Fold each of these.
Amino acid sequence: MENRFITIATLNKSDADLFNNQLSDQDIICQMSDAKAVMANEPDGIRIKVREKDRKIAIHILDEFSKTYGIKECEHNIFSNVIERILVPVDFSDCSKNACNYAIGIAEKLDAEVLLLHAYYFPVINSFDLGDGLSVVVNLNDTVTEIADKAKDGLQNLYNDILTQIKQNSSEQVKLNYILVNGNPISEILNIYDTYHPDLIVMGTQGRTKAKREQFGSVAATTINETKVPVLTVPENSIYRGISKVNLLYATNFDQSDYKAIKKLMTLIYLFDVNINFVHIGKMDDTSKVKIDDLKNFFNQLYPGYQIECSIIEHKDILLTLQKFVSDRHIDIIAMTTHKRNFITGLFYPSMTKKMLFQTDIPMLAFHA
């Protein structure tokens, strides 16, 4: 796998030659090939390919090269930024621990670090009414200290458990840290997002009861809405079996955002042994056939060597069709784009999508196109 060459940029001829020299100085083998633009508004150019194992350092060299010489790529964002930091909000539940397994597996493959975040908040403190508008707070210090200590101990224990797991799996290259904060979970996730700048957020979700569904809808939807990075949500009954091989479903409606979304998707999964199923549920007509062929050609030009399948399925019941496809094809992850804000509202609350989320045990990757 690591000897497979992948595209990291498309440059004009003179810039490509110059960048090739930059890579050679760092002992990175580079392949160059002619690139016919896949989008009408993009120029032709030269595609730069490096081995998968060199991709991370090559991206950093490309960033410095572009800043130094003012280089602009012909095809923007063949890959998005390198995945280096993964944020995992935790609450010490089994579901939360399962999300940590996914985060560690991804971090090991992409050489990224993981930050565990636990946000706790104090409940309304009971007070004793003395009359005449006077009251005395009862056991405030003891209550506050107890809650804080419990949160601290829980996070430390989770950190130690995961650290032990990392060592047992010989994954010492994964950097693991944690942070404990006092505040509303949603607010604190967004605060850490603004300061830590994660490239991926992994969240455990619990949704079998009404209360848990509402909690998931609030925290997850807000996180996806208010951040610009991919968010992987892991259902409580999702069984982690490792992620060395991934069978992924990407649901497409043939929107122009697909082209940007696929580039972001590949940033996350390019090093995995992955089979990607591009699925469109709609009318099987000539227009749909052309569009899915265009999508397939676009993908194969930028990311040759990956196993992909493209399907158009005619069915009025989108939910039933997706569920059957997930089951029949043994899908591991469902990928969806969130390029429209109202998509999030539709994602977590209408009955059809709610059933899709809570009647399957398949993790879902949501990201902005």
Note: The first helix runs from residue 13 to 25.
Amino acid sequence: MTANGLLCFKIGDYTPKEVKETESVKLEELIPKILSKIEGIFRKERMIKKQREIEWKERKRLEEIARIERERLAEIARKIKQTKDDELEKFKDFFNSAHRWNHFVILRDYYEMIESRNDNSMKEWLEWAKKKLDWYNPMLNTEDEILKDVDMDLLEFLES
């Protein structure tokens, strides 16, 4: 670049605008034009900044909506799972009660067969067996102090 004694003013970063004096027009006369270009650049940058703020707020709003939706779906999934678990648990209780009833019927029939023999030597046993039948009967569930810690379906003591 060769010096020619004329001033040149560049405005902008990526595609700078160039204002330069000529033999007939001095840089001082171009100040309003320079200021106008600077003002245009500032206006454009303010618009870009505002647009970015709007986009940022919109992105945050959408992220919040997505977060809320994920939480809502997770809650729905949790409730569905809980409903299924509860339903299965109710069915297991039903199933176990039916099996317990079946076993109870067998025990009752056995008890009645022993009782029908009219053997007085079995009187104490029959009283004991009758209490155990009442305890095991899923329709009565009479308490038994000794067997209160027994799982009725497995006929095993519950672990403490």
Note: The radius of gyration is 46 Å.
Amino acid sequence: MTAPTITIAPPFAPSDAPGAPAFEWRWLAAGAALLASLLGALLLWRRRKPKVLRLAAAPTIPDPDAEPVLPRIDLALEIPGATRSLRMFTLRYRLTLANRSDRAVNDLVVAVQLACAKRGASNAVPLTAAQNMLPVERIGPHQSRTISGEVVLPLTAITPVMHGQAPLFIPLLNVTIEGGGQQAVAKSFVIGTPGSGGEGRVQPLVMTGPPGALPELTARPIDPPPTV
């Protein structure tokens, strides 16, 4: 009996399989090229990505119920000179108004009144008694304006303060600023000869002696006017 013969077939090739599509390398190359193009476009888009616009902050709307911030006006007073006659005491002044705010002030009226400090009484002077009414049209932001003038006081209106046998006179210059859409600003200055203490103090005027020009005088701000 003859043994059966076993025949080994050659390996099966995919390209030879019935109905299998042929594998072509050109499609792989085309796919790789397409993928490379997409990656390049993505990188270019990231580089050219528009910046995010930052919008300006919305303006602050003022509260209609809030109280308005009024400008601050500082006052400084200089005394160029003074004289005393048989009937009148005359004082020359130079007043500087400094606007300490960030906006201008307009249409101000400065009232100046010369008075005498009285012992045991309020030395405030009513606005209607002002001797000088000086208009100031405008003071710009952080600017100043200087005005000057002259005020007089009859000697009969002076109530001297006795120091022993010497009658002393303490002049007061009251300044009020109104207008500009703000509340009135009031300031008083005591006038006298410079004190020896170097602390801005002033000495009363002695009413004895011949009439004529008085020695150097200085002004010291006070608030409120003193009671002597």
Note: The helical segments are 25-47.
